[in-house]
Structures are given as structure tokens and as C-alpha cells.
Amino acid sequence: MLELKKINKSYKTGDFVQHALKDVSIEFRKNEFVAILGPSGSGKTTLLNILGGLDRYDNGDLIINNTSTKKFKAIDWDRYRNNCVGFIFQSYNLIPHISVIDNTMMGMTLSGVKEKTRRKKAEEALKKVGLLEHAHKKPNQLSGGQMQRVAIARALVNDPDIILADEPTGALDTKTSVQIMDLIKEISKDKLVIMVTHNPDLAKEYASRVIEFKDGKNVSDSNPVNKEEADHSKFKIRKTAMSFMTALKLSFNNIKTKKGRTFLTAFASSIGIIGIGLVLSLSNGFKIEVDKFEKNSLSQAPIIISTQAMNMSEENMEKMMGNSDKKLEKYTDEKKVFVQEDIKESMMHTNILTSDYIEYIKKLDKKYLSGVSYQSVTALNVINKNENGYNLVSDSSNWILLPTNPNENNEGIIDNLYDVLVGEINEDEPGLILQVDSKNQVFKSSIKALGLDGDDVSFDDIMNATLKVAINDEYYLSLGQSFIPNQDLESLYNSENSITLKVQAIVRGKKEKELMTSGSGIGYTNALTKLIVEKNKNSKIVNAQRELNYNILSSQPFDNSLDSTNNKDMILSYLGSESIPSIIYLYPKDFESKDSITTYLDDYNKDKTEENTIQYTDMASMISSLSGNIMDAITIVLIAFSSISLIVSSIMIAIITYISVLERTKEIGILRALGARGKDVKRVFNAETFIIGFASGVLGIAIAYILTIPVNIILEDLSGLANVAKLNIIHAVILVIINILLTLIGGAIPSRMASKKDPVIALRTE
Ligand code: ADP
Ligand code: MG
Prior knowledge:
Elements: E1 2-13, E2 16-28, E3 32-37, H1 44-51, E4 59-64, E5 67-68, H2 74-84, E6 85-88, H3 100-104, H4 106-110, H5 115-128, H6 144-157, E7 162-166, H7 174-187, E8 192-196, H8 200-206, E9 209-214, E10 217-221, H9 244-256, H10 259-296, E11 303-306, E12 308-310, H11 314-320, H12 343-347, E13 348-350, H13 355-362, E14 369-376, E15 382-386, E16 389-392, E17 400-401, H14 413-417, E18 418-423, E19 432-436, H15 444-449, H16 459-464, E20 466-469, H17 472-475, E21 476-479, E22 482-485, H18 489-494, E23 499-509, H19 514-517, E24 521-524, H20 526-536, H21 540-547, H22 568-575, E25 581-588, H23 591-605, H24 619-663, H25 665-673, H26 678-719, H27 729-756, H28 759-764
Parallel strand pairs: 3-8, 3-9, 6-7, 7-8, 17-24, 19-23
Antiparallel strand pairs: 1-2, 1-4, 4-5, 9-10, 11-25, 12-13, 14-25, 15-16, 15-20, 18-23, 19-24, 20-23, 21-22
Helix pairs in contact: 5-6, 6-7, 9-26, 10-24, 10-26, 10-27, 21-22, 24-26, 24-27, 26-27
The protein binds adenosine-5'-diphosphate (ADP) and magnesium ion (MG).
């Protein structure tokens, strides 16, 4: 059943060739105790390794089960070792970091036998060698004799047909040697035992057959197999395959034996993860803050539709920086000047706010709006009175038309934006609102407009101020074809036709709406514009202007270019024939509404030519996209820096794994002798890097998470924002996975090296 036919094996070291086996031909019976004797270096171990499938012969043949092994693949040898052969070594070769019983059942673990079965079998084998009570000790807690018994139990446990023992008593004292030999003799009753020894007495006493070796040749045989002894029995060969769980357990046990080093490695390689984790949690937190800010205040900042809109496209920004045409070299020697489109032309867009468009805006679903405001071009002929007399308020064109509440059911836009300090706003009455800033400041011009003066003015004085708006027919005096303003302000002020204006309320922008309501100034209600238009639309000057084709106030001809304010419609509107808005403010109700509004506005432009489109300005999204871009850029730069430490840590893992491979060379040999495939060995080391990768990833995330606490305290101190740094759970999981992948990659080369290790050489290392 086992036969060597003209086996040759030589080892090359440099130029030197050592012929370890020369034309060795031996036949073994299925059941006998063969002792192989011979001086050191005569090729005994080489013979055993070839018989056990650990080493490959150069030429000749090894016949197993009447089958040539010439065509055996690596996997066939692995199965043969796992199922048919049990090895016993002089130096025991137990895996030091796992228990006696785990050592015993390793062969079965490798071939995927169920936990319960293999435990039972291992216990039986340990009982047979008298070591059951030591099952849970580690090998180094046993004596030499006991360790050799564990090795014997391990060799027996899978019930192999062949036991190969290489000087099993070589390291033991005489008394223990005898005990071990008795045990082996016992085993040999129903197995083929081939034992190498250089003790001729032991050989003769125990073995049924003695073969002597000299210089790589078998020189004598006490009981060779006769031609008649035909033997057709066969070995049973099962599959072997280590499960990843086994690999994990092996590596985990190994790692447990060097806790300190593993912890340091995991800690060092977690630094990259800590960095990235912190950066991500900060940028994540800031994004959330910015979103909140946008939703709370920016989202309600008005969308502005003005007669002049700026087109801040990327292309235009480039042009402003002087890089309009990318095809041109920055500095050119050409004797030419290149002409580019005027910036103003392409950046400024003139919106013609036609009555069509105003109608379109009015049809916008009110539910999206918290307020609308039409800045009117209609002039206010305002006159005030102070101790020096009567004055025309020339800067009333800077006054702001208050936004109106578009929807009865909504909370008023004004209540939403302002805190009323004194008085009450009545949007249905013509009146003024004085807005102060957060420190109750206003500009001198505002106070002067109200006919007041001084470094501070009491609320009472302001609420008591009375202004008048003169109607056109009294303000503009007709001189035949032209009109001039009436200089008699006193009579205008006291005319019963003039509209009386009082300050309804003093307000201050709400703190959380700071961005939209900062600053100060005078506002007036929509009802005032309506009243003025009503009183002036049929006034003499308006009627006259309707007939004329030049500016009635300046006698200048109209300029009908697109961006001119000196055209007929504008002048008529200025005089109060109707109220064409020059700027429309749309206040979205919330973040979602803003999108709906801009979509609605975009829809208007769909079938329009470029010059007829109406462009709007969405400050909020400009600010947020800018801040978003800056934040993304910072995040990427910081992550790039932290990634360097991730790379460094995977190199470190590679080195650690390499050291581990060197340290565990013997273990690799043992595993291979027990039938592990090269693949399985790779698995063991991959499992180790997996564990380290997982540990360092989780450790890094945990530390990053803990660090967010002091980071948040510092940030709150600096910025007043609480709990900014927030680690997103998805980021955490992804980081751990990336870390595992990186360490696996780092460990891949050393693991591959381990799997390629020659088991014979591996076993010879000490
Ligand atoms: P024994 O077990 O009888 O002492 P071995 O089978 O171990 O002898 O070795 C036989 C010969 O082959 C020795 O001369 C040894 O030096 C040589 N040899 C064994 N293994 C190797 C190897 N891996 N590389 C080079 N020479 C080797
Ligand atoms: Mg030897």
C-alpha cells in the first residue's frame, strides 16, 4: 500500500548539491512497525518527509494505494497528509498559543469536522495517551514527555493509516522514552508506523522490521516484503479546508499571547482613522449647522427680481479674473489685441418687468410665500416741518416699501421679521415704520427726514412727528407745456389735500433674522403707494406726460435703451400714473417653498429668448453654495492629510505581519504537516490582519468619538455653537471597512509569503 520506487532527492545550496536520497526503493506493509536506523545526515528525515507528502521527490515514484503519485497536485498531497498520515516529531512541534486539546484536534479542525465530534475524538485520543486532565493547559505548561504524548494524540486523533515518527524519543530521558515507545508499539497494532531513531537497542526491542540507512541509501532490511504479499487495501482520503472562523480563532489566540504589541499596533494604526473621523465629524457637524442656518434664516431671505440682475455664472467670474478664453496663452508674443465680450454686457442682465410678468408673479401660489414686496418707482413728495421751517424730503426714494402679507392665513411677514418696540403696524393704513438696528441706531438722514434732530431722540418725539405728502396737482405747477415743483412748502404742508403721514411703529429686526433685517431705515406701507397712485393717476402732469414723447420734468428726449430709467413708462410710473415695481422681493415661507418658487420663476423663462428672460437673484443659495464649496475643499484637504497616516499605518501592518510570519514559521510548518493548504495558511495571516484592522478601526472611531467631546467644548467657547462635531454612524462604518481593507492589502504580501513557505524548511526552523 505504500511503496517507494527508485526515489531520488537532492538539495541544492548554491553550487553545492547534496544527494539526500539515492535510488531508494522500499515497500511497506499496511500494518507493521518499521524502525529506520542510520547516522545523522543519512537521509532519514528526508525519507519520512517524502513518505508523508511534506516534501517532493525529484524522480522515481511513491505508490499510495497502488496509485502513482507522479500526477499528484498540491491539494492531493494536502488531503493525503490530513487524512492518511500522522506526524510525530522529535521536537514535538505543538502550537504554543493554543491549548492541548486545540492542538490535538487541529487536524480535524482543518478538515472541517464538527466541533462536537472533534472534541469527543480529541478527548478519546488524550485519554489514550493519559493526558485528559491536562486538556486545557498550554503546551509549555507540560513536561517533554507529556508534550510528546500530546503530539502522539494529535497524530492518532484523525485515525490515520500511517504514523511517521522522527526520533520521537530523541529529546527524552530513558524512562520517559520507554513509556513513549510502549505507546507507539501499542499504536502499531493496527497501523503502519515508520519510526526514525538512532538508538539501535530501542529499534530492535520494539520494531517488527529494521531498515538501515547510510549516505542516502537503504543498506539493510530485516524483513522486506515478499513478492507474494499482495496488498490491495486502500486509504480513505477526505477533503480538507480551513474555515475562516478557524483561521480567526487561531489568529485571535495568537494575538492574545501578545496583547501589548497588538494594542500598540492597533493604536498606532488607528491614528489615521482618528484624524479622518474627527475631520468628518466636524465637517458633518458644520454642514448640519449651515443647513439649520439656511433653513432658519437664509431660506426666508427674499428672492430679488430687480430691473438689473447680475449673472454670477462661473464663466463670468472667470472673465472678471481675466481668463475669459482658456485657449489663449496667458502671456502671448503675438502682435495682436484680442477682443472679448464686455463684462457688463454678459454679467448684467436687464429685466423688463412687464405687466405680463407682474401678473405671472401674482399667480404664484401664495402658500409658498411669507411675504411679497414691490419696490415702487413712484415718487413720494414728502414735506416735513422742524423749528427752522418746512423741508422737502429729497431722499424719500430710499425708503423701503414694506413687504405685505400675501396670504390671509399666514402669520404676517412683518411680525415674522421684526420686533415692534413701540406702536402698532397697520398695513391697511398709509404710514411709516422706523427700523432701528440692534443698538437702536438710525442714520441722521432718517431722523432728519422725520423733521427731528439731536444725538438721541425719544420714541415719543418720533411717534409725534407729522409729515405730509403733496399731491401732484398741488406740487407741480403748470407753465403751459412744462411743469415746475411748487416752492411754497408751507402751503403744501398745510394743504388739506396733502396726505398726512405718521410713524406707526418703531421696529427692530429679529435677532435670528439678522441676515435679512440688519440695518435701519424708513419703511412705508403698501397702502401709501396705493393712495398716492389713486390721487395722482389722473393729475394734470400725468395726463400731459401721457401725450408727450419727451421727459416732461427734464424736457430731455426719452432714452429707450433697455437699462434706461428715462423712458416713458418709467417716468409715468414715477409721477404716479400707475405703480410699476422696479424691484420685487419674494419672501419664501421655508426652505422647500424656496425651491418651488425658483422653479416657478425658471418656468417663466423656458420659452423666452435670452434677452426677454427675467433673471432673479437668490442670495441665500449663493451664500450657501459658496460656504458649501469652501467647506468641501477644507474637508478634502484635511482628509488627504489624515489619509497619509492611514497609508503609513497599512505599511506598518505589513511589517508587523511580516514579523508575525517570521515568528510563526514553525506554526506554518506544523499546520502544513497536519494537512493545511497554502491557502489556509494565508487565511490565518489574513485573519490576523483582519483582526488588527478591525480593532484599530473600532479603536480609532471610539477615540475620535471621545475626542469630539473636548472639541465641541472648545468650539462652543469660540463660536457659541453647541455640539458641532457629530460623527455620522455611516461614516464610522465606512471608515472601519476602509481600514480593514487597507490592513488586508498591507498584510497581503506577507500572508502570501507565508502560504508559499516550504513546509519542510518551515519545520526545520527553530
Ligand atoms: P537525517 O535525518 O538522516 O539526519 P536528513 O534527511 O535530515 O538526514 O538530511 C540528509 C542530507 O540532506 C543532509 O546532508 C542534510 O544536510 C541535507 N539536507 C536536508 N534538508 C536539506 C535542505 N532543506 N537543504 C539542503 N540540504 C538539506
Ligand atoms: Mg533527521
